[in-house]
Amino acid sequence: MSSRPIDPNAAFELLRTEGFEVEIHQQHLLVHNIPYVTPQKVVRNATLACLYIENGEQVIAPDSGKGDNHQVWWTGEYPCYPDGTRLDLGTAPQGRELFPGLTVQHQFSNKPFGASGFPDHYTKVTHYIRLIQNQAKAIDRDVDARTGRVLATQEDESVFCYPDTASARSEILAISAKLAASRIAIVGLGGTGSYILDQTAKTPVGEIHLFDGDIFNSHNAFRAPGAASLDEINAKEPKTDYFARKYAPMRRHVISHPYFIDPENVHELAGLDFVFVCVDKGVARSLIATFLIDNSIPFVDVGMNLLLLPEQNSLMGTCRATLVTPEKSDHVADFIPMDSDEEEDVLYRHNIQVADMNAVNAMLAVIKWKQHLGFYQDDTRTHNLSFAVNLMSLNRSPRRPEHSE
After folding, report:
1. Looking at the DSSP assignment, which residues form a beta bridge with residue 224?
2. Could you state, in order of their start, the residue ranges of all structural domains in the chain?
3. Can you give the pTM of this predicted structure?
4. Residues 392-402: pLDDT tens digits?
5. How many CB atoms lie within 10 A of CB 205?
6. Which CATH superfamily is domain 180-403 in?
């Protein structure tokens, strides 16, 4: 095992050149088939894993203070000396899924005596391999982690154009995976819908379908995340095309449908796993909600009502996010307004839209979606959230039947 300093970007290739059975998967470096001694004094093999985070085209070195560290995970039993006593590896029990397909049993935290950390991943993993494997060699001198087997290092195709280092650094890849491999839609790309897109685009959800027949105009720019240029506003681009293009540098499979949902095309929502309904027309909301309920497709409907108080020269109001699932839809009439367009047009013409409240509304909707999929814990399991800005209060109702009193 080499002792010379290694360029962090070259560490993986050196490990492979020396015969270690290595691969990079889900922003982790894996070294397989490392011999170790079990507590029963038997030689077995297990996998060592550590963070392998890429920032652009550069690999972040361990102990750089940028997310990586000197810790590793271990898939086997706790490594021991030949007599069955445990090695001192600064262990912390883990017993969890590190990312889909890899379950670890222990986490180790060990550095060479007098060292502040590791300059590269080669030095890091060979340090642990040496400590663990040397004990197995005392029982069987022929065992060696350098199997010479070469593994494919290509990642499975990701929806992201570059790695999601935020989830890797937070060690929540397995939790984030609950959002993957699904197809969602956002119907309506106004202020709230655009913020929902901003949040869902940063998850591993498989496809995001955008439905809206409006053009992206200057008032949309002041109610959407990011900053549109004057040229983009003057282009009079369909909203769905504009947003699909904006998020293309970050992720794949944001699909534009530059038209409104109506009775002739509502069937296009069939087969989706979840829908965010962000429309301001009662007839359209009723059409979409009825179709989704009839086809057992869960959805969140959002709404906002801000009013001007002339005497106080200030605003007050609420925003709402209502979750509807195949298991519970009997609350729809109580919380989702489906007035006629004539009645709603009068209200909407006077309704005020402000980006921060659009963002709050979107966050409530996205959080309910994530709770529905088990990403977030949901102790109250409520189906309607209403935030009042003047009271700074969040009202929750109703609960699922098994949680009702």
Report:
1. none
2. 8-158, 180-403
3. 0.79
4. 999 998 765 55
5. 23
6. NAD(P)-binding Rossmann-like Domain (3.40.50.720)
